[in-house]
Amino acid sequence: MTTEATGPNAGPPQVGSGPLGGPDGAGSASAPPGADVFVDFRDVWLAYNDELLAQGKFAVEAIDLKVARGEFIAIVGPSGCGKSTFMKLATGLKPPSRGEIRVDGRTVHGPLKISGMAFQSASLLPWRTTLANVMLPLEIVEPFRSELKARRAEFEARARALLARVGLAGYEDKFPWQLSGGMQQRASICRALIHEPQLLLLDEPFGALDAFTREELWCILRDLQAAQGFNVILVTHDLRESVFLADTIYVMSKSPGRIVLRREVPLPRPRELDVTYTPEFGEIVHELRGHIVSVSGALKKAGMEIAQ
């Protein structure tokens, strides 16, 4: 299902047809009716400092969004639209200037202990082995930090099991410089999941990898999420990636970032890579690309064209 907000002052989209509801034409990007809402953005605005706030200059504005428990969503849009800002808001690294963010029924006031994060750069510590890198959050996040000494064997077994799930069994004692880029990113995802978070946030995690490695990691992430049921918020520029992985895709406008489209992905699960070659898959990718081009002004007078 696609729901779109149109016009320069249009509010965020909502599920279903008809005009957008709420004050001043603002609607909401909603989880399915009756769903257990896990992430809830309520009219969220963010300015990066008080001066910009006083000037009314926001990085993101009027974000209304509800994510069901266990849902995998992707955020796409033109560069500078606020996708990474959305990520910081969701995990509590940035407080909103206006509005409220709730995760698992609680208002977010700071960094979430129930979340894990992975980025485009694996950022593994070069002096630590793969196993030690994966276990790093357990040395930082409570209550694991206090329990680490007594439960080290249990946590180490968990780390080894995760590494085996992503194909890194036998690489536990290797250092980052001994791993390929794809292996490092697998270890990074294991590190993000070691404390069994309920919410995994991914900021362009596969952007620096070659196409074959990227698709392999899509399948690994698909299987991990299906097995463990955690929520995922994926920020990506790769529309194929978003359609293959996500249940729902949100398109953000050029800065200040607003949600201008909510697109459900009706492709059945589990999805195999062959689905990326089907007409249905291609139509969704093409549709999303058209929306991003329309909100970004990405077509240059020099003659760029949308691929047909």
Give a brief outline of the structure.
The protein has 8 helices and 11 strands. With 308 residues, it is α/β, with parallel strands linked by helices.
What does this structure look like?
The protein has a domain of 82 residues: P-loop containing nucleotide triphosphate hydrolases (Rossmann fold), CATH 3.40.50. A seven-stranded mixed β-sheet has the order 1-11-10-4-9-8-7, sandwiched between helices. A four-stranded antiparallel β-sheet has the order 3-2-5-6, covered by helices on one side. By secondary structure, it is an alpha/beta fold. The protein contains eight helices and eleven strands.
Global morphology: globular
Corresponding CATH architecture of the domain at 115-196: 3-Layer(aba) Sandwich
Spatial order of strands in the largest sheet: 1-11-10-4-9-8-7
Uncertain parts: 5-27, 298-308
Our measurement of the CA-to-CA distance between the termini, rounded to an integer number of angstroms, reads: 22 Å
Largest sheet: 7 strands, mixed
Task: Sketch the topology as an H/E string, one letter per element.
Answer: EEHEEHEEEHHHEHEHEEH
Rg, please? Answer: 20 Å
Kindly report the average pLDDT value.
87
Query: What is the tally of helical segments?
Result: 8
What proportion of the residues is helical, as a percent range? 25-40%
Computed structural class: alpha/beta
Features:
single chain; 308 residues; Rossmann fold; 11 strands; disordered C terminus
